[in-house]
Structures are given as C-alpha cells and as structure tokens.
C-alpha cells in the first residue's frame, strides 16, 4: 500500500503542475510572448547558445527578450545575460533538480509585467527530472554537446521523447571526436520522437545558429501566441 500511495502522490503533483502550466502558457500567449524551455546536462553550452540566439534575434530586429536563469546556486549565468543587454531573472532552486511552475511564475513576476516577444528558461543542468515537469513553455528543446557523446540518447530516452528539437552543440569538436556517431544519434532520437527537429550548431563558429533561429521564428508564428498582444489581468 505504501508504494501505491507514493505513486499517487507523484501523479497528483505532476497533474497539478501541468494544470498550472497550461494556464500560464495561455496567459503568455495572450500577452504575445513565446516561451522556450532549454534543457541539457551541465556544460552542454546552454548559456553560450542563448547568447548566440539573442545576438541573432537582435540582428533580426527583435529587442524585447527575457531570460529566466535556473541554477542550484549563484547568479553567474544571469549576469552574463544582463551583460548582453537582456532582462534576466535568476531562479535558484536551492538543491532541487528541476523547475516547477510555482518557481517559473515567481521568477516571471520579478519582471514586473514587462512584455517579451521571446522569453527563455535556461533549465537546471539535468537530463532526468526536468523532462517530467511542464514549465508552461510553448516549445522545449534539449542540448547535447559533442564532447558528451551520442550515446546519451540511449541513456536518457525520456528527455529526447518530450522535446520539440534536439540541438547538437559544439559541432566544432566533431573532428576531434571520431566516435561521435551522428547517424546513430539521429536514428535513435527519431525512434523515440518521430517529429523531432535536429540541429547541429556551434556558437563559436556560428554554424547552424541561423537555421535554429529561423525554426524558432516559425514555431512562434505557428503557435497561438497573439501577434497583437492583449491586456490580461
């Protein structure tokens, strides 16, 4: 009976979180904000990729950008985003290995009703827990860096199954990692998620960044995000 009770509690927590996420997603859409959740293991290059995306979006005329930086501790990454001229809120989970909707809403409130065309969440560095928790994002992507190895797709299948796009980062290391089997990665990832979009990028060289930004713009255009935002109480 004890095991059954634990399972029921977990299901209830996830259900409540999902309901709150759906409500939050709707509110952001009405405000004209496209919300993207970026997930990866530590060191995959989430902040570096974010900075590259921000630079490209700004070059395309998008200036109303915001970032929620989730970390166990510190504000190192949030400061990097602010130095790039983008509004950023640091979300410290104090040891919790994932981000829940209560945390997201509290962080969003810190922006004091600022409007964004794009709002990004840099999730906790973890390929396990974040896959289970809906953060209210309109799209979710995961990063896998070349130095980590292609076999992560076999070790952490739930993450690959729930995201809209897989971004293979640090592609400039491919020549130094001949064991990285891109074909095997693509085959197994799409076996888990047939609709998965896959991008190969390098924030250092710029490879693939424009294609990824174009995809983001397309996702925003195809979403229910209002093109003419409305006031929502």
What best-fitting shape do the alpha-carbon axes yield?
globular
Secondary-structure class? alpha/beta
Kindly identify the CATH topology: Rossmann fold
Structural domain count: 1
Q: Residue share in helices?
A: 40-55%
Largest sheet: 7 strands, parallel
Lateral strand order in the biggest sheet:
3-2-4-1-5-6-7
**Overall pLDDT metric:** 91
Structure description:
This protein has 233 residues and is α/β, with parallel strands linked by helices. The protein has a single domain, classed as Rossmann fold. The protein contains 8 helices and 7 strands, in the order H-E-H-E-H-E-H-E-E-H-H-E-H-E-H. Helix 3 links the parallel strand 2 and strand 3. The radius of gyration is 18 Å and the shape is globular. The model has no long low-confidence stretch (mean pLDDT 91).
């Amino acid at each position: 009976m004890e095991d059954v009770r634990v399972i029921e509690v977990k299901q209830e927590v996830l259900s409540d979180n999902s309901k709150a996420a759906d409500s939050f997603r709707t509110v952001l859409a009405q405000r004209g904000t496209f919300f993207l959740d970026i997930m990866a293991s530590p060191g995959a290059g989430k902040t570096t990729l974010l900075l590259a995306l921000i630079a490209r979006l700004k070059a395309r005329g998008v200036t109303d950008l915001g970032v929620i930086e989730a970390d166990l501790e510190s504000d190192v990454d949030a400061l990097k985003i602010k130095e790039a001229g983008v509004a950023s809120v640091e979300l410290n989970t104090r040891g919790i290995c994932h981000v829940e909707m209560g945390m997201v809403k509290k962080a969003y409130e810190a922006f004091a009703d600022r409007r964004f065309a794009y709002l990004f969440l840099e999730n906790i560095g973890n390929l396990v827990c974040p896959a289970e928790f809906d953060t209210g994002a309109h799209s979710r992507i995961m990063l896998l860096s070349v130095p980590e190895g292609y076999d992560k797709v076999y070790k952490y299948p739930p993450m690959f199954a729930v995201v809209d796009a897989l971004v293979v980062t640090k592609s400039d290391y491919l020549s130094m990692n001949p064991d990285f089997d891109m074909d095997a990665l693509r085959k197994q990832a799409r076996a888990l998620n047939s609709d998965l979009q896959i991008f190969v990028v390098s924030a250092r060289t710029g490879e693939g960044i424009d294609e990824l930004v174009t995809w983001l713009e397309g996702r925003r255009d195809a979403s229910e995000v209002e093109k003419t935002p409305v006031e929502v109480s």
